Amino acid sequence: MDKLNYQSMVNLFAIFTIGALGIFAKDMRIIGGNNTRIYKNPFMASLRYIESNIIFCGGSIISNKHILTAAHCVFRELDNVNSIVVYTGIALTRSTSGWSHTIDTIVCHPEFTGEDSDDDEDSNDEIYVHDLAIITVNEEIRLNFLQNVINLPNREIYDDDSGYVLGWGSTTHPNDTFPVILQKAYMYIYPLANCSEMYDFRLHIGQFCAYNDVGIGPCMGDSGGPFVIDGKIAGIVSFNYPCAHGVPDFYTNVYFYIDFIRNILNS
Ligand SMILES: *[C@@H]1O[C@H](CO)[C@@H](O)[C@H](O)[C@H]1NC(C)=O
Ligand SMILES: *[C@@H]1O[C@H](CO)[C@@H](O)[C@H](O)[C@H]1NC(C)=O
Ligand SMILES: *[C@@H]1O[C@H](CO)[C@@H](O)[C@H](O)[C@H]1NC(C)=O
């Protein structure tokens, strides 16, 4: 099999067109996932545009003032934090019955690279490296059974680990449609060395790969959401070959950034 090209990779940020907004499929999933409830995942947050109430990314509550997400979700909004809002305590995609939180500051990882930007066809560069950001909300989040903190990881990820991913992203691709409720899909870690063999770009140790099967995996709008292992936030949805083709997807390895995250939580 030919290696998958870095140019065919996309981040899983949702770019909405008028057409996509009208389509809300029933009984469709993350792609291939299952409906889930917020009290089972009370750390799950959505990032929405205030004006449209549209979810463009996921995030995770890591303290009563902080949300962990992907840098590519928010780096365009750093000067414009008043245009987005964080929702917690709600699993329904369009509902505003949860709690909303306005944003004080957003810190992206200072070395976040984004997409490879040189036009070298034979590029062997890393892409979307250091894809994490921390949002500080203005008011403390009142913790309860619907909105609560997820613990940071206390160990490396092992090759035989499995976990699950959560999101409100597209449940069909390329004609994207969006679920009415939060989706969950179990995924298996795919060893980094094996993952490298499938792609023509370099992987960074701050990333990891996971997969399940053809027809299962994160898609547009799932960016920034959590990958949960043993009840802790092990990863952040980052990018993939879109979507659910049965090849491994890429996540930010939270444990690799634990000092960076703790420094912000303690500042
Ligand atoms: C996507 O939508 C276009 C235009 O409506 C249609 O022609 C095409 O067949 C659709 N593709 C899939 C895979 O459903
Ligand atoms: C969906 O739920 C079923 C039944 O609990 C489970 O067997 C399956 O693994 C789940 N699918 C995913 C992708 O998590
Ligand atoms: C990863 O590669 C090793 C060495 O080639 C191989 O033994 C192993 O089965 C591979 N694992 C997977 C999940 O493909």
UniProtKB/TrEMBL annotation:
Keywords: Disulfide bond, Hydrolase, Membrane, Protease, Serine protease, Transmembrane, Transmembrane helix. The keyword S-adenosyl-L-methionine does not apply. Residues 30-266 form the Peptidase S1 domain. SMART domains: Tryp_SPc. This is Chymotrypsin-1-like. It comes from Ceratosolen solmsi marchali. Belongs to the peptidase S1 family. The chain crosses the membrane at residues 6-25.
